Amino acid sequence: MKIRAAVLNAMGLPRPYAISKPLTITELILDRPGHGEVLVKVAAAGLCHSDLSVINGDRPRPLPMALGHEAAGVVEEIGPGIDDLAKGDHVVMVFVPSCGHCLPCAEGRPALCEPGGTANTAGTLLSGRRHLKRNGETINHHLGVSAFADHAVVSRRSLVKIDRELPLDEAALFGCAVLTGVGAVVNTAKVRAGASVAVVGLGGVGLNALLGAAAAGAQRIVAIDLSDEKLGLARQFGATDTYNAAAPEVIEGIREATGGGVEYAFEMAGSVKAVELAYRITRRGGTTVTAGLPPAAHGFTVPQVNLVAEERTLKGSYIGTCVPVRDIPRYIALYRQGRLPVDRLLSGHLALDEINEGFDRLHEGKVVRQVVML
């Protein structure tokens, strides 16, 4: 079938993207779903820094590639071998398919699925197939989803069924921003009620981490960002203290205000400076979690004696250490109870043809979450 999709043909084009247009809206041929695959009519897809990091070249992927990984839609056709979905079902797409058989999946850690990770790196679906073509040229899939398109064929293992009452533009956020941010707090760090928490980087994922900390019962929530506007938003979402990361002696100020640092610090900006800041504001015996995705070559140093003598923990978190089929329904339930007001993170809606301008706004830090309506 013919579809319209946003295709990335070259990474690292200069900004503004409204002029260089790294994403081309073009007609593609989409194959019908194969065994274990589903055709989804995409309804909404969020613009995420993980997409931006492919566009700017920080996370190289095989090109050309149809981008988009945070999305929700409606099942339109089901391939052979699937008996637990029906046409018309509403689904959230998850950007790591879980095979269910590898060691991480067997251990209940589907975010680390080995075949899923291999397929994502190669630009294929979990099956190893590619279903997109342009004038006979094969187009790669982005994280098994490629949701900046009116339709997508994805693995059944990339989908979580939801009820039909949740608006699909809101549902899309649960596939990445909510899973990653809230999950880092409740799954990776297991924040306790009454704990002190800091979040460094207040994009869509960082603000979801803040919401997750509030829902978990953290009594002190410190928000840190370079944007005073986002710090103001963080105060509306439950932050008890806010600091501009560019302020002089910000680390000393936070440590003094919190009596030696926070118990849990979360880095959500994807930069070395941010993770170093998060580590330095974590108290003795505390835990620092990094969920940002910096360029692969970037690194930082940690004093080994500090880790030992202060019994410090430094952890990574990918997709919030989530089990999507368990956690997405839980987080939706919390949203409906008013405890995770993720709808307030929606900065606006845009058409597919406006996507390059949308990524300019994302790069400039002017928005939290924009959603393409398809």
Number of helices: 13
Q: Give me the CATH fold name of the largest domain.
A: Quinone Oxidoreductase, Chain A, domain 1
User: What would you say the CATH architecture of the largest domain is?
Assistant: Alpha-Beta Complex
The largest β sheet comes out as:
7 strands, mixed
Tell me, what is the CATH class of the largest domain? Alpha Beta
Distance from first to last alpha carbon: 16 Å
Strand residue content: 25-35%
Task: Report helical residue fraction.
Answer: 25-40%
What is the CATH superfamily classification of the largest domain?
A: Medium-chain alcohol dehydrogenases, catalytic domain
Number of self-contained structural domains: 2
Helix vs. strand class: alpha/beta
Q: Give the total of beta strands.
A: 18
Question: What is the mean pLDDT?
Answer: 96
| Residue runs with pLDDT of under 50 for 5 or more positions | none
Give the overall shape, derived from the CA principal axes. globular
Would you spell out the secondary-structure blueprint of this structure?
Layout lengths: L1 E7 L8 H4 L2 E8 L6 E10 L2 H7 L9 E2 L3 E9 L11 E4 L9 H4 L7 H9 L9 E3 L2 E5 L9 E5 L3 E4 L5 H6 L3 H13 L6 E5 L3 H13 L3 E6 L2 H9 L4 E4 L5 H8 L4 E6 L4 H9 L1 E9 L13 H6 L3 E4 L7 H13 L9 E5 L4 H9 L5 E5 L1
